[in-house]
Amino acid sequence: MPGKLKVKIVAGRHLPVMDRASDLTDAFVEVKFGNTTFKTDVYPKSLNPQWNSEWFKFEVDDEDLQDEPLQITVLDHDTYSANDAIGKVYIDIDPLLYSEAATVISGWFPIYDTIHGIRGEINVVVKVDLFNDLNRFRQSSCGVKFFCTTSIPKCYRAVIIHGFVEELVVNEDPEYQWIDRIRTPRASNEARQRLISLMSGELQRKIGLKVLEMRGNAVVGYLQCFDLEGESGLVVRAIGTACTLDKLSSPAAFLPACNSPSKEMKEIPFNEDPNPNTHSSGPSTPLKNQTYSFSPSKSYSRQSSSSDTDLSLTPKTGMGSGSAGKEGGPFKALLRQQTQSALEQRGGSPHRFCRRREFPFFTLTAFPPGFLVHVGGVVSARSVKLLDRIHNPAFVGIMSNTRSYKLLDWNSFNSDEPETRDAWWAEIRQEIKSHAKALGCHAVVGYSESTSICEEVCILSASGTAAVLNPRFLQDGTVEGCLEQRLEENLPAGCGFCHIPYDELNMPFPAHLTYCYNCRKQKVPDVLFTTIDLPTDATVIGKGCLIQARLCRLKKKAQAEANATAISNLLPFMEYEVHTQLMNKLKLKGMNALFGLRIQITVGENMLMGLASATGVYLAALPTPGGIQIAGKTPNDGSYEQHISHMQKKINDTIAKNKELYEINPPEISEEIIGSPIPEPRQRSRLLRSQSESSDEVTELDLSHGKKDAFVLEIDDTDAMEDVHSLLTDVPPPSGFYSCNTEIMPGINNWTSEIQMFTSVRVIRLSSLNLTNQALNKNFNDLCENLLKSLYFKLRSMIPCCLCHVNFTVSLPEDELIQVTVTAVAITFDKNQALQTTKAHVEKSLQRASTDNEELLQFPLELCSDSLPSHPFPPAKEHLESASSNSGIPAAQRATSVDYSSFADRCSSWIELIKLKAQTIRRGSIKTTVTVEKTSPMGEGNFRNRSAAPCANSTVGVVKMTPLSFIPGAKITKYLGIINMFFIRETTSLREEGGVSGFLHAFIAEVFAMVRAHVAALGGNAVVSYIMKQCVFMENPNKNQAQCLINVSGDAVVFARESELEVVSTQQPAANCQPACTGGEVTT
Amino acid sequence: MTSELDIFVGNTTLIDEDVYRLWLDGYSVGDAVALRVRSGILEQTGATAAVLQSDTMDHYRTFHMLERLLHAPPKLLHQLIYQIPPSRQALLIERYYAFDEAFVREVLGKKLSKGTKKDLDDISTKTGITLKSCRRQFDNFKRVFKVVEEMRGSLVDNIQQHFLLSDRLARDYAAIVFFANNRFETGKKKLQYLSFGDFAFCAELMIQNWTLGAVDSQVDDMDMDLDKEFLQDLKELKVLVADKDLLDLHKSLVCTALRGKLGVFSEMEANFKNLSRGLVNVATKLTHNKDVRDLFVDLVEKFVEPCRSDHWPLSDVRLFLNQYSASVHSLDGFR
């Protein structure tokens, strides 16, 4: 009995009218945890009930504490009929289970109903008393911290990064149970929400156990996903990186002497690990000969191809059967051996080591300095699976007769099912691992997994970046500093990660290598594709930009295996084209590396969609990319020739324009290093992909274009014309806008504090008349481009700004529907400072080229010196001019907006005044109001604060949300726990709610509101690393119905503005009492 | 390719004040897009019409969802669904409750009932304000009226507290509510030259001096209903015109005081009895509801028009009226 959960129901407000006769509600609350339920008294005839209940106490196991959500149901008491539910609140109490996070959850929660949406709010206080039971780590894993952030969280230091943890749980989807036919949609939705909440709790606990087993204390880069497999069930799976984290003692420790406010701002994107100690030790590399010691040999390349064939046709019973599996066995052992030798000796038993090292994957995308030694390239694997075949003879028997609901006891399957899913993923991971091997890398970073499901076909995908890591962080023991120091001197920080990890003479794929343009000592490839964020110490020239490859392929409708085969036949071609598009677009931008690459393949009834997003940059260490040349097949034709040369000119112009736009002016480099400027007759691909559902003809696809010149586009048919056109139709963002899908925009580092996170969803219906691939491509391209254009237009008031972490998700909900969901954050930056720093950057890169010592020391120093002179504001006029000329909006319009803001200020001061008046009135002899709202004791004090400091008050109650791991201009002082929420919303009155757009708009706004409310209740004021993992929208306009499922997650944090940091110690309690303050605010 | 669904949801709700104005003015999405195109926004931003259409739709949807909250502004401040900075909230409320001069003149003093609402079509055609906008303004009047009626305390304060309006706007609403409650006739042709501001000025003075609240009693509707006792007392004024001696004395007092100060002295002297009779008659009839309603019509007919026909300057009118009422105090029975 190691825990006592205490809950108090304080009050409700804005409740809906449940009794039409009196226009009032007789509300009471049920509080349920596990199997125990408490009830409050009925508070009669009020829309703002004050229950002020006693403390409801639940005595529970900590295992339950982790798994179960606290369920609060608000009901309307009805004497004669059944009580009507108003709505529910699910509270995840996990954040209360670790010592450093929140101590109390207290605040107003929106009361949510899956049919009606938010219906009023309820004020709840939750506390947990954990008893110190030393034995408690049996089944529970209380105390393991979870972070969605894919880097080491800001106020922690990574002691050890243990590695990959994964788990999945399977259950039957309540919506597909037989009982669903007789129960209401509300009951069904609630059953689903409850189940998923329970499953994710269980999953988190199990992952926590694995972490404890590895002697870690935290999971970073935790990514949890749901697969709604329909009839075959519901899978909740999660991956993450186990770490041992040390809390940095006081925030002052990482507040350096340089107190310019912009300094911090700059440091955040750069400094992933705030611990100064790691700076001094600097980046290091594993012993060089060790790296090379496991460079790919012949056996490897053979193995990488064998792993392709080895992947069996999906629904085969028993994994690893057949000859391939046998062959795989010894290889596995070999690999392990190699890995083991690559990583230095580790503490702990060899057995544990093997287990742990099974998949040397890391879900992190940004690393402490020195962690990442070399980057090999992107590795990805996909596999097509059939869902409705489950390895259970009894089950199959039933399925063959009827497609009706399963009447079997699901528990009998449950034990079996995760095994299948586990095996599927294990298979894919194994493949990723072998690809990484082939690239001479022992680890995969920036690793992620995803699925796309359509009917009974499921594509499993995994991708990551093969890399060589510094074992220092992976091992338990300490390292002798002197050895590292010596190694480090060989390797300048700015380019080390670009150097090839594989053996030059025995390359896993054809590639063109040159000497590094930075240090000139090591070989580098000519392009680099990665799934990680740009390393903080990388030297970049100019700015980056969002690069997308978009592709559709029609597919015949088919059933089951035929369908799966058709899909797996199409996949390689899609990958190939996506890759070509990316490469061409990258060249067109004059850049040479991609970061944050995410290729999403979505399967629909009659088509496949591919969408790749990445951020292109120009890495100083890599060679200048060659141009794109167009060649015609029929050189005799004069007019054709002319056309070709016209196209060529257009392309060249675009490249030149892009170079200017993104400020790519690489320093001149002497000829002998550059070598031949003419493109090599082979395309280098960093992309190793593979097909799983392998028919024999598609075993190994050569992405290297054979003998063709990579940069020569042959216009021999309309398809190629299409390609060239589509290259040129990508419109750059309007001036003043930048976009990227990584955490930060390379080349911009002077963020100002204004941020706007948003989600935009679009669904288009394709005209069903004889769709061709071309028309489809064009439609899809237009959809994405228009969406981006709309975003730029909507956010024009923030110029100059950058859209960061632009995350596109494509789904195909129905035959002719394409849904694109975008979540991103717009961050403003200071244009003037940007110019200066880019200059500094170029200078820096030049310095880099000449000096390699003291790099690390120099880096932060330079930042200080940049920011200091530029910080004092330039003369206002000049500033305005440059801003308006940059934004492309006439000064007149700007002027009106300025005017407006002053109006707005006036308005807000009115409100202040009015509130003040209201307060004085109430304090006077007359009681004017009939409202039941009572002024809480906090109210008045809070009120005075407001009028005294109007600027401070504007931040009260505001919860920021961002997909990034940081908040510009602010310091995260505390992590309060993970937010992981799943909501279902359904309507049977779609038209009345404003159609599909109105319905979804309201729902997403409600989801945001519920996330914010939970964060505020934890005492936080922001969500970082926010991600909308799923947004499944289904409609049936004929029945006037729609349903949507949304899954979001992020880390709740407390942040303090840099200016307030000095008073951070006093801020902390203030932040904690914030919910109470908001409570008080209500009544003012 | 048709767009089935197209939404944008920000963590901070984006409010475009230009679009908000168009929405408040009752334009349809199509009209609003056309108007925005005409404003040259496409050239300034390089956007396409489709982008503008989507943007406008989005804002309209947001406003539509916010409208429910705007009906009870304190709700807008305390709700959790839309994160809107306080300055923007104030702007939303203030603009939503703003009204058109042309419209308010049409309904001022009318009963805020369904019947009047039916006439909004005509008002819309007459004023050129869209029917939608007319409805919003009418509903605002009615809503404010419903909330503050039968409430104690200062009318302006009550309005401010429940609708979070600026001081000026709250005063205007107080005037509208006051007029609607007492059903003063303002629509007659004779009164057309008067602006809403003129009436609002009168309303403020009447609230200060003629209502129950003016005599410091704390009852419901204290600022909205005229003080019946006061109106009853006004009957006593009859003596000023009924008693010949008193009338002459009053006249001589006024004339003595104003001699040489008034440009229109001779006209005043000649007309004194008529003017005094007119004013006193208006006052003494106020016990009848019908006559209360016609207060402004009567005042214009009985007092303003005679003055105007004699070309009294405004300053002279003011002097005369001040002296007229001041002199009364020195008469027997009024001391």
Fold blueprint:
The complex is a heterodimer of chains A (1084) and B (335).
Chain A lengths: L2 E11 L13 E7 L2 E4 L16 E5 L1 H6 L2 E7 L7 E8 L12 E10 L3 E14 L14 E2 L9 E16 L13 H29 L4 E11 L5 E14 L13 H10 L5 H6 L6 H6 L4 H13 L11 H21 L7 H7 L15 E15 L6 H9 L8 H5 L2 H22 L4 E12 L2 E13 L11 H8 L24 E3 L7 E3 L2 E2 L10 E15 L5 H29 L4 E11 L3 E13 L9 E4 L5 H24 L9 H4 L37 E4 L2 H12 L7 E3 L11 E15 L7 H22 L6 E11 L5 E13 L1 H20 L4 H16 L5 H12 L3 H33 L13 H12 L1 H4 L6 E2 L8 E18 L7 H23 L4 E15 L4 E17 L6 H9 L1 H10 L1
Parallel strand pairs in A: 9-11, 18-20, 22-23, 24-26, 28-30
Antiparallel strand pairs in A: 1-4, 1-8, 2-3, 2-5, 5-6, 7-8, 10-12, 11-12, 13-15, 14-15, 16-17, 19-21, 20-21, 25-27, 26-27, 29-31, 30-31
Chain B lengths: L1 E9 L6 H8 L4 H10 L2 H5 L3 H22 L2 H6 L7 H12 L3 H7 L6 H5 L1 H8 L3 H18 L6 H9 L3 H16 L13 H15 L17 H7 L4 H4 L1 H15 L6 H20 L4 H5 L1 H15 L4 H15 L7
Helix pairs in contact in B: 2-4, 10-12, 11-12, 12-13, 16-17, 16-20, 17-19
GO biological process, one term (chain B): platelet aggregation
GO molecular function (chain B): fibroblast growth factor binding
InterPro entries (chain B): FIBP
